[in-house]
Amino acid sequence: MVISLICKVLGTSELFVLSQIELTKQFMTGRVAFSEYYVISYPFTSASLFHVLLMPIVFITGVLTHDVSQVDRLWSVVPSATIFHYAIHSYLNDIGSLRLYIYLAIALSWSTRLTYNFARKGGYSPEGEDYRWEILRSKMSHFQFLLFNALFISIAQLIILLCITAPAMILVEVGNEDLYTGDYVFATLLAACVILEAAADEYMWSYQSAKRHYKETGEVAKGFTAKALKRGFCTIGMFAYSRHPNFLMEQCIWCIPYFWGSYLTGNLFNWTIIGAPMYVCLFQGSTSFTEGITSAKYPEYKEYQKTVGRFIPNAGSHWVEVLEEDRTD
């Protein structure tokens, strides 16, 4: 009954799903070799198996190390690795396409940028657990947080990382058809989003570096004011128009591929839609939680929230930095 419901939601054949489950069982019990399973299985099936196998690993590692940022450390790698898997599978089955390889190249550039940014912030260090997990941990009992770690951090987040790559399956299924004008448009949009996200991260990194330097030495870095650094949160560049321009671009990067697939199939709705809304909901929730922490820590943040849009810039409104010498009151 559950499988029938899933098939109706995904718009696929129950026989196909059952055949994939049976094939996976044969692989897991050693009746089908990995090389054979890899080539003949539906690539989303083998990708799903990989993500399922990761779940207990990240959960147990988090429990043993008391550091639940294991999925955070995989975030920049797993989606691109999955798309790379789709590309290899397509190549082995002689249906590889330039369209898919272009998407893979963009995904790899996203991974490189995000990995670099995460690393320079210390995310891969043993003490690199996201500060928000510690705050959330303090609000729950040990058992509640253990359950949260299992269901959300270790399972739900990996499901989301799998599902945001689902639109790439449309590019796989289209095969090696010639590129259309729309392919160039969507690829350009994706590349632009990666570049804009990198720019937003640079603004944030510059501000945080200047703030840290000011706290340590009392010196104000070039391009900043003491007032802006004392305020505690970034309002420069893109952050004068959007409170989270990097998050906006991140959501676009994983929503645009769905519309790319819709363009190729000529249908607005298809089963690969499951990832985009999940990703948007995740960012809505995590951003609300983060802003709750920030507004409690920095008094001026509430004014910033009134002036600047969370993701989409407010029409005719942006943050204006007032220098002390410009004040008339």
TrEMBL record:
Keywords: Membrane, Transmembrane, Transmembrane helix. The chain crosses the membrane at residues 37-62, 98-116, 146-172, 184-205. One of its GO terms (cellular component) is membrane. The keyword Amino-acid biosynthesis does not apply. The keyword Nucleus does not apply. InterPro entries: UstE-like. PANTHER family: 3-OXO-5-ALPHA-STEROID 4-DEHYDROGENASE, 3-OXO-5-ALPHA-STEROID 4-DEHYDROGENASE (DUF1295). This is Steroid 5-alpha reductase C-terminal domain-containing protein. It comes from Lipomyces starkeyi NRRL Y-11557.
